[in-house]
Amino acid sequence: MDFFISTFIKMFFIMTPFFVLSVFLTITNEATLHDKRKLAIKVTFSVMVIALVLLFFGQHIFKIFGITLDAFKIGAGALLFLTAVGLIYGNKDGQKPTDTNLSDLAVVPLALPITIGPGSIGVLLVMGAEFNSFSKLLIGSLAILCAIFLIGTMLYLSSIIEKFIGKNGLLIISKITGLFLAALSAQIMFDGIKGFLGL
After folding, report:
1. Which residues cross the membrane (predicted)?
2. Would you call 112 exposed, middle or buried from its count of C-beta atoms within 10 A (0-12, 13-18, 19+)?
3. Of 51, 52, 81, 143, which sits 20 to 30 A from 44 (CA to CA)?
4. Is 183 within 8 Å of 93 (Cβ atoms)?
5. Is the pLDDT of residue 15 over 60?
6. Which domain holds residue 85?
7. Taking all residues of the chain, what is their mean pLDDT, rounded to a whole number?
């Protein structure tokens, strides 16, 4: 149970849900409630598929490119830190979608790279390599899917959340999320360095 909860919380924060929500609200500013909810479902499904592909095939990617787990932890931690800095200073990857066709925005940019950015990709690959038993892989996958489903629910109810929290509230929460991500990225890098040096 502790493993499920820790994996769930880690993935929820790594995918920067409040930033994703703020971007979603910006993109769908003039859309109808039906279109917003339809897009939220598409984004959620897209993110689930991408996350599971990265999780299950992560080890094969490591083998093909000859990358060690410790090296990838250091790289993923560094990318995640950049994402955290972007959140704190109000920008993530400089993405500002302008396409008026909402359906076309479900996979790119909402799923990739806004919800699953470079940091999230790195962490999913690391998790895939670390889940060394079937039970861990099953529980970890379920936790990741639950985290994605919760973010999808937030997007689905985005209009209600916006009225309740307000845009300033979302901005504040996004910055707090950035601080948590910065700490998490540092821990991932330290673990990689520790393993690399054999400490």
Report:
1. 6-27, 39-59, 71-90, 102-125, 137-157, 169-190
2. middle
3. 81
4. no
5. yes
6. 2-197
7. 85
Q: Number of structural domains, the chain?
A: 1
Query: 55 with 144: CB under 8 angstroms?
Result: yes
List Cα–Cα distances, 121 to 40, 48, 101, in angstroms: 21, 12, 26
Give the pLDDT confidence of 25-70 residue by residue, as tens digits.
878 877 889 999 999 999 999 999 999 999 998 778 778 888 887 8
Does 94 score more than 70 pLDDT?
A: no
Q: What is the pLDDT of residue 91?
A: 54
| Structure-block tokens of residue 28 | 């769908």
